Amino acid sequence: MGERKGTNKYYPPDFDPRVHRSLDAYHGTHALRERAKKIGQGVIVIRFEMPYNIWCGGCGRHVAMGVRYNAEKKKVGMYYSTPVYEFNMKCHLCDQRYLIRTDPANFDYVIVSGARRKEQRWIQQRMVKSRRRTARQSVA
Length: 140
Ligand SMILES: [Zn+2]
Description:
- This protein is an alpha+beta fold.
- The protein folds into 2 domains: 1-34, no CATH class; 37-139, no CATH class.
- 23% of the residues lie in helices and 35% in strands.
- It has helices at 2-6, 17-20, 23-27, 122-139; strands at 43-49, 54-56, 62-63, 68-79, 82-90, 97-103, 108-113, 115-117.
- The strands form 2 sheets. Strands 1-4-5-6-7 form a 5-stranded antiparallel beta sheet, with no helix packed on it. Strands 3-2-8 form a 3-stranded antiparallel beta sheet, with no helix packed on it.
- The radius of gyration is 22 Å and the shape is elongated.
- The relative contact order is 0.12.
- It binds zinc ion.
- Zinc ion binds next to loops.
- Pfam families: Saf4_Yju2.
């Protein structure tokens, strides 16, 4: 919807580009409309996709990887020069809220509160095994 409204190029007769600068400024709105409702607090609403399987902390039900939420995105810190973002969203099955943060140090997401991760980091385990194998070969 925001995209459709953003393409409206009607300039009212009393529009003065030197005074109003842009149509958004004339209407007193942000280009991202209702997604930028809390922009003053540094919060923007984005579409967040669950990066792995989790169990909700409120209803205990399983939420699959790939389920999408309208999440409030906020910058909460820095990891060297990389910003750390926090996403706040509501469970689609109950009133529980999830708080998930990016983890640039491990190229991952961490659950701060509201849910429990289903441990499925197979690739990492395989890498550990292969590393052990190569260590054994180098000894022999
Ligand atoms: Zn839930």
